From TrEMBL:
The lineage of its organism: Bacteria, Bacillati, Actinomycetota, Actinomycetes, Micrococcales. This is Tryptophan-rich sensory protein. InterPro entries: TspO/MBR-related_sf (IPR038330). Gene3D superfamilies: TspO/MBR protein. It comes from the Bacteria. Keywords: Membrane, Transmembrane, Transmembrane helix.
Amino acid sequence: METMNPAAAVGRTTSRDRVRQVTVLVGAAVAIVGATIGSGAFGGQPVAEAAGGALSATATPVAPDSPAFSIWSVIYTGLAVFAVVQALPRQGADPRLRAISWWVLASMLLNALWIGAVQADSVAGSVVVIVVLLAVLATMYVKLVRMPHTATAPSVITDVTVGLYTGWVSVATLANTAAFLAYAEVGELGLGATGWSVVLVSAAALLAVAYGAYGRRRPALVIPIGLAMGWGLMWIGLGRTNGPLVDETVATAAFAAAVVAALAPVIASLTARRSATR
């Protein structure tokens, strides 16, 4: 059973904590509203139609089918709940929230910037932004794995939200990179579109295994990562079974990768739990 590290004990809330809480709350609201408007949810140009359709569901063999993007509603809800919870007076001195809140805000602003880059028809810029976004999420992931839980509610809300966010962006980064390469007309680079697509979905599955192995003692964090990655990979597979870009080889590889991604963190967490009880 995990015991709380004395260093993680909640101390006294300071004025800096209050500034952080208010800034993150207001910044989160601005970032979420901006990203929602920029994505075309309230009219305007949808992301899938921007940049000549470079990021549409049929742009490349590793583009997830359109329903996959509904996961953003879950992620945005989690981020909104996180912003409210971290702003509660009693959470001001929570050491986990102190360590992670600024990073969460940075990730939301980067996501809004990514939408702006796509709407400006800068596919190359979108790749740069999403890679930085993934780096920020990976930093949060490592911090959350290393820091013991504090209060149950904020810890679980943080882990689940960051987990879903990290898992989805991990898959989206691969898809975005493939979209840029297709947009830049670099050619098939030896393996062909099908070969490279199989490599990319396989890499996503291996990344999910790595997430699960490193964070095996944080199931509330790594299981959502696996579920989000499995979700994205599943919709890549479904997208290749119908429509204008059918590819049975990529579909099979994507479905297999989705199963691995979803199950690997669960297996790693169960293994760690059994080891801890021996």
